[in-house]
Amino acid sequence: MIKEFRLPDLGEGLTESEILSWKVAVGDTVTLNQVIAEVETAKAVVELPSPFAGTVAALHEQAGSVVEVGKPIVSFEVDDAGASPSGVGGTGAGATSEGASAENPAETAAKREPNLVGYGAVVERSGRPARRQRTFAGGVAEREATVEPAVEAAVEPVSAAEALPAVESMAPFAAQGERTAEKERPRSTPPVRKLARDLGIDLEMVKGTGPRGLITRSDVQDFAAGPQAQGAGSEVHAAAAVGASGERETRTPIKGVRKFTAAAMVQSAFTAPHVTEFLTVDVTPTMELLTRLKARREFAGYKLTPLTIAAKAVLIALRRNPTLNSRWDDRAQEIVQFNYVNLGIAAATPRGLTVPNIKDADRMTLLELSTALSALTDTARSGKTSPADLTGGTISITNIGVFGIDAGTPILNPGEAAIVALGSVRKAPWVHNDELAVRQVMSLSLSFDHRLVDGEQGSKFLADLGAILSDPAMVMTMI
Amino acid sequence: MRSTVLTDKPGQDAYQASNPGISAVSPRRTGGDLVQLISPEGERISHPEFDLWVSDVTDEQLCSLYEDMTVIRRIDAEATALQRQGELALWPPLLGQEASQIGSGRALRDDDFVFPSYRDNGVAYCRGVEPTDLVRAWRGNASAGWDPYRYNIATQQIIIGSQSLHATGYAMGIQYDGSDSVAVGLFGDGATSEGDVNEAMVFAASFQVPVVFICQNNHWAISEPVRIQSHIQIADRASGFGIPSTRVDGNDVLAVLAATRIALDRARKGGGPTFIEAVTYRMGPHTTADDPTRYRDANELEDWAAKDPIARLKALLRTKGLLTEEVEAKTQAKADEVARSLRAGVINMPDPAPLDLFKHVYSTPNSWIERQKDHYSRYLESFSGSTQEGAL
After folding, report:
1. End-to-end C-alpha distance for chain A, whole angstroms
2. Which sequence positions of A are flagged as catalytic?
3. Nearest CA in chain A to B288
4. Nearest to A353 by CA among A267, A253, A418, A261
5. What are the tens digits of pLDDT across the range B3-39?
6. ipTM, 2 decimals?
7. pTM recorded for the entire structure
8. Which of A33, A90, A114 has its CB closest to that of B81?
9. Does B87 reach chain A within 8 Å, measured CB to CB?
């Protein structure tokens, strides 16, 4: 007998969960309560114990997919004797059901499946007006699954005609003839439609490569570039279609830290008007200071780097230019001036970019700051940064110098008014005491939110920062 | 060096951790040292006062304590699995607190009345509540799993700490009746920060009622560590109300049993309320909807695993030569049987009918409820004969 296991509501009122990994494969024999999968809900990562003893007959969802509560995720082959002691068959919670009911999917779908705290998995669907099924330019039917194997995704949108190099660029025209008048217009976005109109291109002729056949800006541009470009593209497709070795592209679902980072960056870039200023300074005196400090006994065993000094310099310069340590509270229509500094440090971690911050960094001595910096980077790299460390930052530093980069236009950590990018320290010809000398120089890039910070304040801050790094004794004049 | 989170002395560390500037201020400590009768290694430690209260515990009874703890852990694990399988909406695991619950539950007399929190399934088990009834409300099939007067234990209280008021009130009733039974209020460390618990202690002290407050300090109020909740030991809070308190190792079933017996005896003899802090640890999540790895150190869990309540009793039984194959097999069989019957009971539990909602609002007929029931039944009938839909 086949028994289905539907994804239960694992929290209180959750509507979906992501299957992180399967612990069993089709054909495996499982015991009751044996862990079969690891699932992440909005609240927690939990292990799913098998509700049956039997053999895994099918896994309906792949690892990595986000599944609605109530959808079947796995089927078991259970012998009748084995099923009966656990008394399966009650109408209960509806998380398990007999295979027979699956034969009438329409009925199953229509039947309301209340979960235990009252949010039906199907309810979400039933309230909304039904939407017409879209048909796409490529004629590819809408697919239900959200995640497909990379190869399949790359190959499917290519029609058979296109796969033949001989008719490569003519494929869209050939396909057009077969279309009927009822077809919807090709999927694209308003800016792309405008671009096509401006370029005099009929979108019906353009092949969409975006999700579900969406025509993207680059599709239109490629089409405009002429048959050569299209041809080259089709050859690529053709190669993939005939199963040539090696993937041409790798598709990774957007999720986790990457998804979060993307959302944060987009939000920041399109809400805060960024201004970036650059300043290259001679940091030889700072490097000398660093050498002297390292030799001192109280710093023995501590990790002192240009970042340590630069972080301290940022904190000192911030005292004279507090505007950069503020936040634009759009909802309250207020500017929040922080009287403390939670110094964010951008860190590349195995999970992606995170910006943990050091709380009350402005009150720390250099020694405390260096300890906090080491702890912060160690924690971030081991992926153990707590949510509290990631929130509440007031200004950030990104140390692009470690990658050998000089300057860039950093994007603000959302909610902050400024971010400083530290370039690499490198030897360069420099005018020193009116003579050309080889000095250690560093580029500083400062992005700030122009809603909060005017050019004057931003420039003064950057100049102060440069002044400290090119002559640490200048701190005497600042505090 | 151990992390400060692991300490048994939350008061001191709370000061040092959050307020280094005033660490010289020593928190007031009257709760005394932690009473322990079985060490984490399973050695029997003698104690001048407490030993008397467990001297009557026979070898057989010691084995039965072991069995109860093993069975309740198994019930807990099965219920957790049932939640993951969609059979229960939610479940609050008690993993790690077996000694606190069995030790206190087994000390009670049948006519004592218990007011438990949602996590005290071990105590309910000791009172004779059927395992299936323990989970009835968690499945959403009933608003209460059992008849409180049948087992002399109230149904599980979800509101944090409010059952302590019920316990005090019930104890006032015992006092009026002139009976020598005792009301027992069970709650956690977080509850002691609630107004209800404080009010309950004020009234309990004022009227010197026969109530025993048993606080299972499991170190975490969901994600809030006890050291932040209380700058003094939890047991010391009671002394502020003039209630004598004891601090016992909550992972030591004999210590909890002795402490509960002492408190019950005092209450029966007119000595008024007692507060017991059983220092234990919630080894699982707050509920099945919680992920403790997001807020607590894995090392902490490891340290407490070394103090496991069942492991230490097992070690003691082994030392005493009581842990025979027969005992092991019998215990295991009992746990398996209870788990099996729990699973069968849950899966075959019939869904309540939609109109059952109106059954338990008033004990006598009520025209307003009747009217609502009539409206709702007509509404249900509008769904082409199917009365199952829209039930929730």
Report:
1. 79
2. 450
3. A11
4. A261
5. 333 334 433 433 333 333 333 333 444 446 799 999 9
6. 0.74
7. 0.55
8. A33
9. yes
